[in-house]
Amino acid sequence: MTSIKVTFFGSSTAGKTAIIKRYIKHYFQENYEPTIEDSYNTQISVEGFSVHAKIVDTSGEDDFQLLREREFLDSDYVVFVFSLSDEMTFRHAQENIGNCLSSVIKSGRTKYPTVIICGNKADLIERRRVEEEDITKLYTKIGMICPCAVINVSAKENTNLDKLFDYFATGVSQPFSNETDPKTPRSGRIVKPVVSLSVQEMHELGETKRRSRFIAFFSPRKRGIKY
């Protein structure tokens, strides 16, 4: 059985821990409890694919930046969680994605991880603050570099969590998958797990300049912002 590593990132209030515990332990954690780092092991089987997944839940605090970097550099999937009702968590996700992919490039890793952009708290419709257009722009930028999918979930209502974790067994659809609507079924051809372009392949495609512009897109524009 294939073994993979999945790392979750996100602001401390985005709900990444709630997502993981809702799926693995089948309960919703109502009260917030700060996470330094936790890991879980689970088996995911869907559509003829089966994997053993190590799920890593990282801290949302900046104090643990080095710890987070250690985790994502050998991850097959990285999930960036933000709250659909909090624009600041979305900005934080953008910055984290840029830092992650920049570190992958500098590390000399031969393959990029698959990136999942995950909007949590989809049940808080009236309190939504993150526009679909902004999510799509982010998704499009990432799709220039590596496999990517977008999905909105609700840990509280258990909406789309099975679909999110199914990605880790099936891989993302091609062309890159966009599932911001919880009611929209996944479309496209399913590919094998852990599909990504290698750094060498990107060079052969003449993508060096485009990668640099992509990383610049994520550079923090307001240095004074704290998450």
Automatic annotation (TrEMBL):
Topology in membrane: Lipid-anchor
Gene3D superfamilies: P-loop containing nucleotide triphosphate hydrolases
Top-level taxon of origin: Eukaryota
A GO cellular component annotation in the UniProt record: plasma membrane
Main location, first listed in the record: membrane
Pfam families: Ras
Keywords carried by this UniProt record: Cell membrane, GTP-binding, Lipoprotein, Membrane, Methylation, Nucleotide-binding
NCBIfam families attached to this UniProt entry: small_GTP
Protein name (Swiss-Prot/TrEMBL): GTP-binding protein Rhes
